[in-house]
Amino acid sequence: MRVVELDGTGDPGVLVPGTRPTPRPGPGELLVRVGACGVCGHDALARRGALAACAGAVLGHEIAGRVVALGTDVPGGWLGKRVALVQRIPCGRCDDCTDGATTHCRSGPGFYGEDLDGGYAEYVRASPLNAVELPDEIDDATGAILSCAVGTGLRALRSAEVGPGQVVIVTGAGGGVGLHTVALARHLGARVVGVVGSPAKADAVRAAGADSVHPCADITAGAAISAHDLRDAVRALGSRRGAHVVIETTGAPTFSTALRALAPRGRLVLVGNTVPGPLPLDPGLTIVKELRVSGSAHADRDDLTEVVELVADGAITPVPARRRPLSEVADAHAELDARTVIGRSVVIP
Ligand SMILES: [Zn+2]
Ligand SMILES: [Zn+2]
């Protein structure tokens, strides 16, 4: 089968065409013909060598497609189904899995692009434990982005207990996760302040449901929006003492400012880490305001199931930013590096 693999780490030129034997589904596994694969900021970090992926890896963890073969011990009904996949295949047997914490499982086949070959390929291995059936009205390009670009935000918003009337700040609001988190927060009845890296992304974030949008002068240089401006934006939405929740999808460039915009007992949930490294947490502020700072990982199968239902019901409408053939995945990476993509792009093998 055709793949695009990493020939070392570095600029997008290290993404090169290659071939692999088509995988055979093991016991309990599905073989999925990839219909589309999202191109995520996580992939760009992996390509630069900041994550576990190494030379020869086939990246791509945002996958939808059709089940074309079954391993032993898989109910025959899976054959031919169109599915969206969660980015990790859990084992289904370890303590984390039996506790329902499958995102923490480290005993299964693992995370696409790191532990097993990912979706920059014609076929991937999958499992009933990470696959959710897609209805006909959701195409593969949309299905591909539902777990990472949409499910991540849903899981974070749930963990922050976001509800009607609350004010939610979403940083990196023009990114794949950010844009869909804005739409989901709005769907949950919250009012939303979006912080974007570039003014060019503001219209899309407003269209996704943000009540106000604030460019952060140069997110790569860490020049954040001022805390004063952000607090004013929250006040304008009627929350005098600050925001109830921050969903932090960028990390270092906006963390301190966003933390200071929280009301007493506010919750900041970290889901993105675009500039890996430690963050400066102000202990005085955190103690006096009784803030909660937590992390939220990728979606699990239950989250993805809920997202598929929300999209099928028309509650939210994710739209891939751009569709390219797999052979042009390096162009999609270059666009990510330049921070010009709004939302999430996909490649089609
Ligand atoms: Zn992703
Ligand atoms: Zn497990």
Automatic annotation (TrEMBL):
The keyword Lipid metabolism appears for this protein: no
Keyword Nucleotide-binding applies: no
Gene3D superfamilies on file: Medium-chain alcohol dehydrogenases, catalytic domain (3.90.180.10)
MF terms (GO), sorted A to Z: alcohol dehydrogenase (NAD+) activity; zinc ion binding
Region listing for Disordered, in residue ranges: 1-26
Names of required cofactors: Zn(2+)
GO cellular component, one term: cytoplasm
Annotated family: Belongs to the zinc-containing alcohol dehydrogenase family.
Pfam families named among the record's database cross-references: ADH_N, ADH_zinc_N
Coiled coil: none
Enoyl reductase (ER) domain: residues covered: 10-347
Entry protein name: alcohol dehydrogenase
Superkingdom as given in the UniProt entry: Bacteria
EC identifiers of the protein: 1.1.1.1
Catalytic reaction(s) noted: a secondary alcohol + NAD(+) = a ketone + NADH + H(+); a primary alcohol + NAD(+) = an aldehyde + NADH + H(+)
Source species of the chain: Pseudonocardia sediminis
Keywords, alphabetical: Metal-binding, Oxidoreductase, Zinc
